Amino acid sequence: MEIKKIFNNNVALTEDPTQTEMVVMGKGLAFQKKVGDQIDADKIEKTFITPSESFADKLYELLDEIPYEIISLSKDITDMASNELDTTLNDSLYLALSDHIHFAVGRSKNGLPIKNALMWEVKKFYKAEYQVARKALDMIEHTTGVSLPEDEAASIALHLFNARQDSSGMEETMAMTAIVHDVTSIVKYHYGIDFDEGSMNYNRFITHLRYFAYRILRGELNDDGGNGELYEQVKMQYPEAYECSKKVQAYMEKRYQKQMTKDELTYFMIHIHRVSVREQAK
After folding, report:
1. Would you tell me how many other CB atoms lie within 10 Å of the CB of residue 199?
2. How many Å apart are CA 59 and CA 188, to the nearest integer?
3. Do residues 256 and 239 both lie within one domain?
4. Is residue 73 situated within a structural domain?
5. How much is the average pLDDT of 63-84?
6. What is the DSSP pairing of strand 46-49 with strand 11-15?
7. Which of 7, 47, 153, 171 has its CA 20 to 30 A from that of 121?
């Protein structure tokens, strides 16, 4: 394979005899090499085809900031996740994971862990991605010596979910957008409020709606009976949010012929209450 660009001593952009471009990784594989030279195949540890030149350029930018071991680790995690989830993951996951892991490890070393507000929802509704992410934490600890908190498993699980190539079709994306818009409108008019679209609570609410819409369209709503006790507690504590969530439930039944579970209704009430209280307080 001929070298087209050298990122650093360990990473290079190459082209094979069929003119297919790919990034190759390996300790010292580009050391004392120049563009046009051939790569020593014995030194190649990892390869992946680049979807675009812009992808290669973004990788180059990351390599200015992120150690090779993190880039290599992210490739291993992506390959593991693709195998475990039995799906093709978007190539952008390499970049997103490398960036995320690098900063997560750095924050942990400095005693600055970040809580993931969606952790319990991720554990409940994205069990497969979460279990894979737990394995990723073990891989991270093995490579870096840093044991990341459980919250990071939830963050990685969301990266995996977003990287599923089969979840971004235009028709499905439009349908998801319609659900998010309609449910947001129901909440808005129920409370008579306008949302601060830059607020953290609004963004959390929209994130939950997007994942909910995905599950609705894929028929993946969790139907394990739910936590009835928690449902009743939240219902009693947030009666206005309960009334609003019932309107959302009626909409889903009429438009999509889907029954929302108690778990879904519980999380809706919590998010609806949070976002509405913050908006009404302004």
Report:
1. 14
2. 41
3. yes
4. yes
5. 87
6. unpaired
7. 171
SS3 164: strand
Q: Which residues pair with 49 in a beta bridge?
A: 22
Query: 111 — alpha (psi -120 to 50), left (phi > 0) or beta?
Result: left
φ and ψ at residue 4, rounded to 5 degrees = -105, -30
CA dist 164 and 87 (Å) reads 7
Three-state SS annotation for 14-82: EECCCCCEEEEECCCCCCCCCCCCECCHHHCCEEEECCCHHHHHHHHHHHCCCCHHHHHHHHHHHHHHH
Q: Confirm whether pTM is higher than 0.70.
A: no
Is residue 127 in some structural domain?
yes
Instruction: Give the Cα separation of 159 and 188 in Å (integer).
Output: 29
Per residue in 100-133, pLDDT tens?
A: 899 899 888 888 877 776 777 677 667 788 999 9
Domain that holds residue 274: 169-280
